[in-house]
Amino acid sequence: MVPITTLHYLVVAAALFVLGVIGVLTRRNVVVVLMSIELILNAVNLNLVAFSRVWGLHGQIFSIFVITDAAAEAAVGLGILIAFFRNKETVNVDEVDLLKW
Amino acid sequence: MLHLALFTIFGAVAVAGAVNLLVQRHPINSALSLIAVMASLSVEYLLLGAEFVAAVQVIVYAGAIMVLFVFVIMLLNAGEEELTRGSRVAILVGIPGVLIGAVLIAWTLVQHSGTGEVAIGALPGRPETIGWLLFHDFLLPFEVTSILVLIAIMGAVVLAGRPVPTSQQPRKEA
Amino acid sequence: MAQYFTGTDYLLSLPVVLLTLFALGILLIDLMLPKQLKWVNAVTAFAGVLFATAGVWRIQAVYAKGAGGYLGRFAFMQSMLVDRFAIYFFYLFLAGTALAILISVRYLEIENEHHGEFYALMLLSVVGMMCMAAGYDIVLIFIGLELMAISTYVLVGFLRRDRRSNEAALKYLLLGAFSSGIFAYGLSLFYGLTGSTNLRAIGNALQHQMMVRNGHADPVAVLALITTATGLLFKIAAVPFHQWAPDAYEGAPTSITGFMSVAVKAAAWAMLLRILVFGLYPLRSVYLPLIIFVSIATMTGANLAALTQNNLKRLLAYSSIAHVGYMLLGLVALASVDYTQPAFYDGFKGILLYLMVYTFMNLGAFAVITSLRNREVIGDEIDDIAGLYFRAPTEAIMMLIFLLSLAGIPPLAGFYGKYFIFLSLIESKHYVLASLAVLYAVFGLYYYMRIANSMLMREPLEKELLPLSWGMRAALGVTAVATVFIGIFPNWFIEAVNWSLGLTQATPIAGLMK
């Protein structure tokens, strides 16, 4: 039987982080890009909670703040998306083309 | 043994959900797989003894945020995303590049010794202690967070609200 | 039971509390105001800034006096450190915000988007900036950063009917949130390495680990440093993380472009200095090569891209990226020597002075561009400024002063910012970098003179005179006078920077290291 260490959790978090980065870089749909950013923030949270097992509760507190921030970012992001959609009728990143990308 | 089994199952579900999020072409499927990721992460938090964070994860993330996402997907009626040449190039160049990054990150983490074994049970994350910390050590960040949430509400209302029609002439496009 | 929070804590948070109260007040008053009286919101916001300035002044008088006084005070269980460095930045943020409010009023009326939320968001973003500059706990710094960033996203997208504004906000949000995520990942690794969220504890633990490992950094520390630095460099818009800046600057309401290029940028710099110099100082040998590379890339990329721009806001965006490159050179100088060397102070001094000078000259230039906007003309193309001298001579002369100052011509303020940075580079023996920087500064003269040429030599496309509102007049007057004044009497301002670093005291830099 392999004992589970903090490292195991960190590897899962790193995998989620990298998948989130891939999502931001390759997907065209703005909603999916925002979801990939949520994935990155989830990786941060898993890191923090795993470390907080070693060091005490401060990491968990930090993760609660990160969750709140994710909620705020998602709300504003979707608000901007709605305003954008109203003028342009698309949700694809590469059709955000009035300004040079 | 229980710890190993639970960790492996839910860790695998989380990573598989994340992969599925990227592979799915329809945003609603991506949103559903993100919910799976978040739910399985909250089980991982329980294994780490963070009961409160696990509850917040389910209530705020899987509950509130994802409802918002699903709502917006439905509202905008976003359909399937087609691949363009640009996105194919991004996939061809991006994925190998990022995978190299992943291997580097994993290698770095493995290099670092000194992460101890995690026992299941004997949970440190009692809600009282968290509350005490929030209103003591982290009082200022906590209060600032309340402003952050206010801004988010205000921003969403300002941006998504319907603009008042004006008699102004249309502006010249640049 | 012991008393956890004392009057000191509350006094130190006074500016933040005042700004929040005024912002909430604006939101309430706005509901009652008819459309013609929306300028009352601007007056309220301006009063809020004045009250907050008085609060900062009070803190300075009580806790940061000269000899024998304190260099700084911790508040709220060490999550906040209000030292002279923080107070200096508080003043910068408040000055930038006050000027941006002055130039906003008429612009918003023309755009027909004159809402109270605009000013409330500006004040609340200053709250975030103050948390970034005074934060001594990575949780507070992160929350402050997000507070500032999210309010700026909304401000950029404030012109809802304008597609450029929508797009700018969307791009800024996606890249900003992405970089915040990467930044948070780095912070979580630092927490894991050191077991603390306090910058001083993190710095001490890292120092200890470096000693244990014979001066080699832990690989995880390197990974954490790279992700954290990526987030920080994104926020100051250094090449190759600058993609968002020209788009966001071009699409945002012009007064917000000015606000972003001074106050938001100063806050990002305050955070960068707090984290890299105060917290992660033990890792300086690791990040030095990274900063050198980024600063060269930034100067090269931005100066080349600025040459071909025809949109004034975009051109000034690239110019502001180029200025970030020069400021990063100051960081190179201070990270390459020990903190007892003169190059360390001169580099630090250079960055702080540069930020102050930049606040006035750049906001002045944006004020001129804002004034070009009238009912029919968007006024941000280089053609729109053509013949400005014949339409508004005073304004054209002021713009010329700002442009010369941005280019770093000696009798003006911009020169002194560059002077200390080049001095510190020479003191720390980076001769190649110093000559490269001088070369690029000369190069920059070309595109600034392109604007000046269009302004002074070309025939105006529109003949009518340019009306200026009282707010615009005040803002232009203050920025122009400050730009000239700092250039002619630099000593007072250098003294102020010395004061903020505590250089007259026995302890070299307030709050740095043990």
How would you summarize the topology of this molecule?
The complex is a heterotrimer of chains A (101), B (174) and C (514).
Chain A lengths: L5 H21 L3 H26 L2 H31 L13
Helix pairs in contact in A: 1-2, 2-3
Chain B lengths: L1 H22 L3 H21 L3 H26 L8 H27 L15 H8 L4 H22 L14
Helix pairs in contact in B: 1-2, 2-3
Chain C lengths: L6 H6 L1 H19 L6 H25 L8 E4 L4 E4 H28 L4 H19 L3 H19 L6 H32 L4 H14 L6 H18 L7 H8 L2 H26 L4 H24 L4 H24 L6 H31 L15 H4 L1 H15 L5 H15 L3 H26 L13 H19 L1 H11 L14
Antiparallel strand pairs in C: 1-2
Helix pairs in contact in C: 2-3, 2-5, 3-4, 3-5, 4-5, 4-11, 4-14, 4-19, 4-20, 5-6, 5-11, 6-7, 6-11, 7-8, 7-9, 7-10, 8-11, 9-11, 10-11, 10-13, 11-13, 11-14, 12-13, 12-18, 13-14, 13-17, 13-18, 14-16, 14-17, 14-19, 16-18, 16-19, 17-18, 17-19, 19-20
Supply the key terms.
heterotrimer; A: 101 residues; mainly alpha; Helix Hairpins; 3 helices; elongated; B: 174 residues; Four Helix Bundle (Hemerythrin (Met), subunit A); 6 helices; disordered C terminus
Note down, in words, how this protein is organized:
With 101 residues, chain A is mostly helical. Chain A has helices spanning 6-26, 30-55, 58-88. Helix content of chain A is 77%, strand content 0%. In chain A, helix 2 (30-55) packs antiparallel against helix 3. The longest helix of chain A has 31 residues, at 58-88. Chain B has two domains: 1-95, Four Helix Bundle (Hemerythrin (Met), subunit A); 126-160. Chain B starts with a helix and ends in a 14-residue tail after the last helix. Chain C starts with 6 loop residues before the first helix and ends in a 14-residue tail after the last helix. At the A-B interface, helix 1, helix 2 and helix 3 of A face helix 1, helix 2, helix 3, helix 4 and helix 5 of B.
CATH superfamily label of the largest domain in chain B: NADH-ubiquinone/plastoquinone oxidoreductase chain 6, subunit NuoJ
> Looking at the chains present, what oligomeric state does this protein adopt?
heterotrimer
Query: How many DSSP helices of chain B?
Result: 6
Largest interface (CB within 8 Å) is between: A-B, 70 and 79 residues
SSE order of chain B, one letter for each helix or strand: HHHHHH
Computed structural class of chain C: mainly alpha
Total count of domains of chain B:
2
- Uncertain residue segments of chain C: 505-514
The main pleated sheet of chain B reads as: none
Instruction: State the distance separating the first and last CA atoms of chain C.
Output: 31 Å
CATH class of the largest domain in chain B: Mainly Alpha
How many strand segments of chain B?
0
